[in-house]
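Box 3.1 — From sequence to structure: Cyclin C-terminal domain-containing protein
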Amino acid sequence: APSLWPSQEAIARLTGVDPDLVTTMEEQVRLWLHDDLNTVNTFRVLLLYLERLGFYLPDFKGTDRVSSVARDLILQASYSSLCVGMRPSVVSAAALISVRKGKGLVPVWPVVLQVMTGYTDLFIPDLATCISFFDNILGRSSVAAAGDATAAGGGGG
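Predicted structure (token representation):
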């Protein structure tokens, strides 16, 4: 909540940066993000999805590769105008789906995440757009991959 954030003066005292410069930097960041401060939450949403899948458990050391690739995709999305304004949950879901498809993990969108998010159809426009974007980054055809994802998505998980 903005009321809990430190004042510009407090930031200036702690950093040694002029308060006017802090204000200017904040305005530039808000402008760049189109005032969508939810952007910073995309990584937290991904972490929540991974935790829900049990990736925090010691037996899941190999999944670090999944999470690191998904984080890289989300970072690349932050540089793209395609994902601006999309909900963090959609961007995170699409990144995780693309990575799970690429690694052959079935189902690509486990039931536990379907129930948690309400995303049971991978062809929801924003989700499908993000999946296609990430599939292109990973060098896959999203049309064939989307069909595979739907076929694999109905299982347990």
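Summary of the box: Confidence is low (pLDDT under 50) at residues 143-157.
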